[in-house]
């Protein structure tokens, strides 16, 4: 389904896009970042928290990193301080890149059995499918944040993969 090279590209794209969005959000007040804007998780801050939580739960399943300390319901408020949220995001993006750098095709071709707290049951799915979901989930919610930031007058950077600095 996917290759290790694709996962490495997407891990770097994720980090690049997170840096862009967090930089744009830095220009807003804490009140503006926390204002409920009608998005699925309400605010920019809460959506960023959900993204970090989602990445952590999948990396726990994929690579054995620590499981998030809160469940999905607590995710939007897991890191209250903006500076701490930015630091944790940057550090975890490095974790994702390192994980992707160590992937091989045999691992991606196998299955993963995991328990979903949201669904309340165990699943066994192809790892390649789950890694695809992992990166798609990031892109989906970053798109929400991008829209919210734009509505606030912030200006995130380019989002096109071919424009990623590592590819220039």
Sequence of secondary-structure elements? HHHHHEEH
Count of extended strands: 2
Q: At CATH's second level, what is the architecture?
A: Up-down Bundle
CATH superfamily: dinb family like domain
- The tally of helices reads 6
Largest sheet: 2 strands, antiparallel
Structural class: mainly alpha
- Strands of the biggest beta sheet: in what spatial order? 1-2
CATH-defined topology: Four Helix Bundle (Hemerythrin (Met), subunit A)
Low-confidence stretches: none
What is the 3D form? globular
The average pLDDT value, as a whole number, equals 95
Tell me the Rg in angstroms. 16 Å
Summarize the topology.
Layout: H1 4-26, H2 30-34, H3 44-63, H4 82-101, H5 105-109, E1 111-116, E2 121-126, H6 127-151
Antiparallel strand pairs: 1-2
Helix pairs in contact: 1-4, 1-6, 3-4, 3-6
Describe it.
The protein has 168 residues and is mainly alpha-helical. 58% of the residues lie in helices and 7% in strands. The protein is built from 6 helices and 2 strands; from the N terminus they run αααααββα. Strands 1-2 form a two-stranded antiparallel ribbon. Helix 1 (4-26) runs antiparallel to helix 4 (82-101) and helix 3 packs antiparallel against helix 6.
């Amino acid at each position: 389904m996917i290759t290790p090279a694709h996962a490495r590209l997407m891990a770097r794209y994720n980090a690049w896009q997170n840096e862009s969005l967090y930089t744009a959000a830095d220009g807003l007040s804490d009140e503006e970042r926390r204002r409920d804007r009608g998005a699925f998780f309400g605010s920019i801050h809460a959506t960023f928290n959900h993204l970090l939580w989602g990445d952590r739960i999948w990396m726990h399943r994929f690579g054995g990193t620590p499981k998030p300390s809160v469940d999905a319901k607590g995710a939007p408020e897991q890191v209250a301080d903006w500076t701490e949220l930015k630091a944790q995001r940057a550090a975890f993006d490095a974790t994702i890149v390192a994980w992707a750098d160590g992937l091989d095709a045999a691992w991606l071709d196998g299955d993963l059995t995991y328990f979903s707290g949201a669904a309340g049951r165990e699943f066994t799915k192809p790892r390649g499918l789950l890694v695809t979901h992992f990166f798609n989930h990031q892109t989906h919610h970053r798109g929400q944040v991008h829209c919210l930031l734009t509505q606030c007058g912030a200006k995130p950077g380019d989002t096109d993969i071919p424009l990623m600095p590592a590819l220039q």
